[in-house]
Amino acid sequence: MIELQNIFPEIFLTLSLLILLVAGVFLKNSFSLIKKITIILLLICIPLVYVNYDNQILIFNNNYSINNFSNLLKIIILISSAFSLIFTGQYLKRLKIEKFEYMILILCSTLGMFVMVSTNNLIGLYLGIELQSLSLYVLSSIDRNSLKSSESGVKYFVLGALSSGLFLYGCSLIYGFTGSTNYLIINENFTVENIGLIFGLVFVIVGLAFKVSAVPFHMWTPDVYEGSPTAVTAFFALAPKVAGMGAFIQILFVAFGGAFAEWKTIIIFISVASMILGSVAAIGQTNIKRLMAYSSIGHMGYGLAGLATGSLSGISATLSYIFIYVVMNIAAFTSILFFSRDKKYCEDIRDLGGLSKNHPVVAVCFCIILFSLAGIPPLAGFFAKFYIFKSVIESEMYILAVIGLLSSVISAFYYLRIIKIMYFDTEQEKFDDISGLGMKFSLFSSSFLILFYFINPSFLVNITEIASKVFN
Asked: For the segment 12-53, what is each residue's pLDDT rounded down to a tens digit?
């Protein structure tokens, strides 16, 4: 019973989704009601996680960890999931995707992410990944009237199954050479001479790299981002990235903390490749969702650069980066959902011409978001990259820092191009006015946080430093 008390947030989410599933079956036209209840339940879960915030305990025979690190990531995941519902309600109604199962899938996926960031066992990690991924496969193809949505779901499912297979093969190698799937025992039994164990680690990294859209396992991202309904794409860009990065940190620093020299090169390569491809490939994109896909690939590269240092400051920098990345993407996708004419959503960047004249407030907010994504000071995005580069330079990885800075400069081009279109291109037809309260709240609150983050940047750093001390 004491162990069950420590996983009360997970139990709460499980009971919530089961009760809502039954309620949705018996209540007709219950979409709006279940959406509001789901948002409330996700927000209620935040203080439930925070109750255990200072505890650092291992439960279920050391296979599940409750600590500052996992609890911080759970709070970010809950915020991401809640906001992905807050600003997408109007969009789902317009596309007639008013299915109560949408919220059930969000809750299932969130529960899987909780398991991913807390588990201390490869089997638990696989179960968490699959619970999250199966929900995402269905979400990406939830618009059955859209050929693109169905196609993106199939692509995501096939490539996701491939990555799961590679991940499982890596797990089987690790189990075979250590006799355990527990992270702590794996770390104790690791030896440099054990080549099979290193091969297993490589396959596990490949599986996790797929989940965070890191190069060269990013191939699904642009197509799935473009084909999925924008509300689903917004969710893809938020919570799953947090959970994937959390799982990465757990595997690298808990299970293979003694193998830093072995995995350092792999993480540097993935980081550099993601930063370069994310900044270069997005230049030629005209679809804003595809552009955001390549943007997310680049941002994951910056996050992995912090992990490549193998230091506590690197973990802290990555956690800070992930939180700011989530806030920026909440604001970015809220803006994208605003771009609709006659209830038809526009995804072409050229449709934003003259936005500053027709919708000056939205244009200013989107401008702030794009400057932040580009890393322009004194916005939150600048501090996120500053923390990463600071930890990389402290670890004397100067080439990685230079590549990161250059790719950041290149990526600024396609962000600034959108601003140029909004303010200087030929004026297009006016967009529909914002009518959803959730969209207004999401856009203005996240833009406000991005704009005024510089007033007290140390607040987030202090929290992430406390969380990263778990790996000391």
From this structure: 999 999 999 999 888 887 888 999 999 999 999 999 887 655
By the 8 A CB rule, do 393 and 319 touch? no
Q: 59 has which bridge partners?
A: 64
Distance of CA 202 to the CA centre of its chain: 22
Return d(Cα 107, Cα 275) in angstroms, integer. 31
Nearest-angstrom CA–CA distance, 325 and 450: 10
By the 8 A CB rule, do 220 and 290 touch? Answer: no
Phi, psi (degrees; rounded to nearest 5) at 20: -65, -35
Strand, coil or helix: 187: helix
Pairwise CA distance, residues 264 & 260, whole Å: 6
- Integer Cα distance of 84 and 239 in angstroms: 9
Give the burial class of 412: count Cβ atoms within 10 A of its Cβ; 0-12 exposed, 13-18 middle, 19 or more buried. middle
Count H helices and E strands in the chain, helices first. 22, 4
Measured in residues, the chain has a length of 472
For the segment 314-345, what is each residue's pLDDT rounded down to a tens digit?
Answer: 999 999 999 999 999 999 999 998 888 877 88
Q: What is the mean pLDDT of the chain?
A: 90
Sign of the dihedral defined by the CA atoms of residues 346, 349, 354, 357, in that order: positive
DSSP for 231-298 reads HHHHHHTSHHHHHHHHHHHHIIIIISGGGHHHHHHHHHHHHHHHHHHHHHGGGG--BHHHHHHHHHHH
Q: Among candidates 79, 83, 2, which has minimal Cα distance to 45? A: 79
Half-sphere exposure of 263 (CA within 13 A, CB side): 30
Strands 64-66 and 344-345: unpaired
